[in-house]
Amino acid sequence: NGVDLWRYGPRDPDPALAAEWALDSMFVVGYVGTHGMAHGLVNIVDAAERLLGEAGLRFLLAGDGAERPQLIADAEQRGLNNVVFMPPQPKERMPAVWSLCAVALVHLKGSPVFAGVIPSKIFEAMGMGLPVLLVAPEGDASRIVEGAGAGLCVPPEDPEALAEAVRRLMFDAHLRKGLAKASLAAAQSHSRERQARLTIDALQLAA
Prior knowledge:
Blueprint: H1 15-20, E1 27-32, H2 42-50, E2 57-62, H3 68-78, E3 83-86, H4 94-99, E4 103-107, H5 121-128, E5 132-135, H6 140-148, E6 151-154, H7 159-171, H8 173-187, H9 192-206
Parallel strand pairs: 1-2, 1-4, 2-3, 4-5, 5-6
Helix pairs in contact: 2-7, 5-8
């Protein structure tokens, strides 16, 4: 997994997309990807319920998957106006979607099976210069994020911990900017161009 640096990069929020989804001037925590059983996204809905009192905060869930209809129904039933569901977007529109976000939320279910999973969205977020909020079992992904100083890691299936991390990022601009700077710097180490060079070096050495 890696990132095409020519495609991603820091940018101002896309004005048309922000207006379309009523996200102007909002602090957006964005999850972009599959809404599946492996991701445990009901945890986000639970955290959003705890954060209803935070004016100007929105959770953006963009993508599709088996769990999406139930997540939408659950959020509607609870009256959560701070959760926005965006349908799947084409690959070329991903930078515009990420541009709406102040924080990139990467989320996995709380199972030891996922300790070795490294979601590709971590590297897209780094390419965009976004702080990463990783919700996952401690493992390979958390070592990458913490090692780079690119974000915060919280345990899965703990909505209170997720809500507290969101509050911390929302109200501590100094922390957020520091994580964003480190995140963008780390993207260079995870570019597909660098991966290609390393692969070529290995093949030449083997030959």
